[in-house]
Amino acid sequence: MRDISARELKGHNILAVERFRDETRWMIEFSVRSPRAAYGSPGDEMRLFLTEDGYQAALLSQQRREIKIKRYAHIIEGHILGFKPKKHRRHS
After folding, report:
1. Rounded to the nearest 5°, which phi and psi values hold at 54?
2. What pLDDT, in 10s, does the model give residues 38-81?
3. Strand partners, 81
4. Which terminus of the chain has fewer Cβ atoms in its 10 Å neighbourhood, N or C?
């Protein structure tokens, strides 16, 4: 399987206007797993620039297994900071 960064992503382009809005705080790249997901269809690889509320909604969608966040970054004034793969937590 190829890395998500090597594939064409649906959703927002890396230079999308949403990235530069004052209220934008997060960028996520994710896979759609369920037809119940708010964005895309199962199997789609997506990128979205989100407000804090939008990011919290995406985290809830991930908890419901509708999406799987692959990478994320904090956005400040249109700058992408701390681009990281989603860390997997181990449960004891």
Report:
1. -65, -40
2. 888 999 999 999 999 999 999 999 999 999 999 999 999 999 99
3. 74
4. C
